[in-house]
Amino acid sequence: MEDCIFCKIIAGEIPSDKVYEDEDMLVFRDIAPQAKVHCLCVPKPHFAALSEMDGAQAETLKRCLEKIPAVAQKLGLADGYRLIVNQGKNAGQTVFHLHIHILGGQPLGEKFV
Ligand code: AMP
Fold first, then answer.
1. DSSP annotation string for the chain
2. Using a 6 Å cutoff on CB, does residue 48 contact ligand 1?
3. Tens digits of per-residue pLDDT, 46-57?
4. CA end-to-end distance (rounded Å), the chain
5. What does the domain layout of the chain look like in residue ranges?
6. CA dist., res. 5 & res. 97, Å (int)
7. Which of 52, 56, 75, 76 has the most CB atoms within 10 Å of its CB?
8. Which CATH number fits domain 5-87: 3.30.230.10, 3.90.1150.10, 1.10.10.10, 3.30.428.10?
9. pLDDT tens digits, residue range 8-56?
10. Does the active-site annotation cover 99?
11. Counting atoms of ligand 1 from 1, which one is nearest the CA of 16?
């Protein structure tokens, strides 16, 4: 997608602090971290939201989820981490290329959620 910042990061047109990459996904550190460790797992195919996801994209997302535990281990998150997927305006989604926030490195509290 032409105007998608995450597509540009995946294409290497915008730099990122990359922690993992394979054929399905790119994981990089969030530019405005909200926890000691805050990364974004971005599936490479562009789709904005779960409601737009087709079958092939769902298979990619499944593989991303399967690989996140190994990435979390590499990030030192053996004590636990939180995954967040913001969907739409009320959730505060600002980048409309589906992504999974990976938050950890500290106790996150029991609220939210
Ligand atoms: P969301 O609000 O769920 O759409 O999350 C978008 C996230 O992308 C925010 O946490 C931003 O801080 C992060 N972000 C935006 N631009 C960049 C960038 N160039 N590199 C890394 N993270 C970014």
1. -TT-HHHHHHTTSS---EEEE-SSEEEEE-SS-SSSEEEEEEESS--SSGGG--HHHHHHHHHHHHHHHHHHHHTT-TT-EEEE---SGGGT--S-S--EEEEESS---SS--
2. no
3. 999 999 999 999
4. 32
5. 5-87
6. 8
7. 75
8. 3.30.428.10
9. 999 999 999 999 999 999 999 999 999 999 999 999 999 999 999 999 9
10. yes
11. 20
- Answer whether 107 contacts ligand 1 (Cβ < 6 A): no
Note if the pTM is more than 0.90. yes
Longest dimension (CA), the chain: 39
List 27's β-bridge partners, or say none. Answer: 20, 41
- Is the minimum distance from the CB of 94 to ligand 1 under 6 angstroms? yes
Cα(101) to ligand 1 centroid in Å equals 9
